[in-house]
Amino acid sequence: MSVTNNNSSARVIDGKELARRTRLEIAAGVAALKAEHGIVPGLAVILVGDNPASVSYVTAKEKACAEVGMLSREIRMPADVPERALLDEIARLNEDSAVHGILVQLPLPKGFDEKRVIDAISPEKDVDGFTPVNVGRMIIGEQCFLPCTPHGIVKLIEFAGIDVRGRHAVVIGRSNIVGKPVAALLARKGTDATVTLCHTGTPDVARFTREADVVVVAAGRPGTLTGDMLKPGAVVIDVGVNRVPDATSPRGYRLVGDADFASCADVASAITPVPGGVGPMTITMLMWNTLSAARRSVV
Description:
The protein has 299 residues and is of the alpha/beta class. It has 2 domains: 38-123, 3-Layer(aba) Sandwich (Rossmann fold); 147-279, Rossmann fold (3-Layer(aba) Sandwich), CATH 3.40.50. The chain contains 10 helices and 11 strands. It has helices at 15-37, 52-68, 83-94, 114-119, 132-140, 148-159, 179-187, 205-209, 261-265, 279-298, and strands at residues 11-12, 42-48, 71-77, 101-104, 168-172, 194-198, 214-217, 235-238, 242-245, 253-256, 270-271. The strands form 3 sheets. It has a 6-stranded parallel sheet. A 3-stranded parallel sheet has the order 3-2-4, with helices on both faces. Helix 2 links the parallel strand 2 (42-48) and strand 3 (71-77). Helix 1 (15-37) packs parallel to helix 10 (279-298) and helix 6 crosses helix 10. It is globular and about 50 Å long. The protein starts with 10 loop residues before the first strand and ends with a helix. Mean pLDDT is 95; it is low at 1-7.
């Protein structure tokens, strides 16, 4: 892996372009599955309540399904729906042969036991990769649905031509959705990075990031990573999506990551932008998992 900086701004890793290429590959796979077996991959998305961000995410997923030729089914439920009714809907979808993937949009409204809800999804249809069965399989290296954002991060690193074998990777953030699984994926056989996981209990994060060849920052807080925390030539993968006030923007805000892009780009050899970096890969890998689930149904 090249870690030279050459006193210039970092190379920007284009998540939009990788997502475009990957979706073309997925669309070809969907078409082949339909032609050879008469099966069209189907994704069911359950949305409880009307959280604006969740509604936006669901709409983006439906658009992505249409783009690659998949069937999408949206099930909307009011925020005060009994949890039992939600579990019954998941059970029905588990038995529906036209549905290959099930996704419950998180976060759920207050009063729901998210763990109980996610655990109710059949592991064979858990295209988010969140159920204990799939998480366990990932950890021990068995075939499974990998969680979408961590899988997308690994694909971005490969796309950028960055070889992390034997290199030091630091992950900032220990969430079950990104931090922990991406640390596991970077350390697994075949990827072979040496991984340090930092979090809110880490006294001096910069002590570790200054020694890192790759830094994945997924803390959910703007400015978590700055250029003075990097060694020259490091690679920065920024998972954060944060709204900050911006009077010059028509919307009154702009999106920034968890890394301070300007200062990090002056030191790093490569960096993902926000938006346009990790984000486009998350939904793309959801489509990837749904196609994989449909293919497995043929066997």
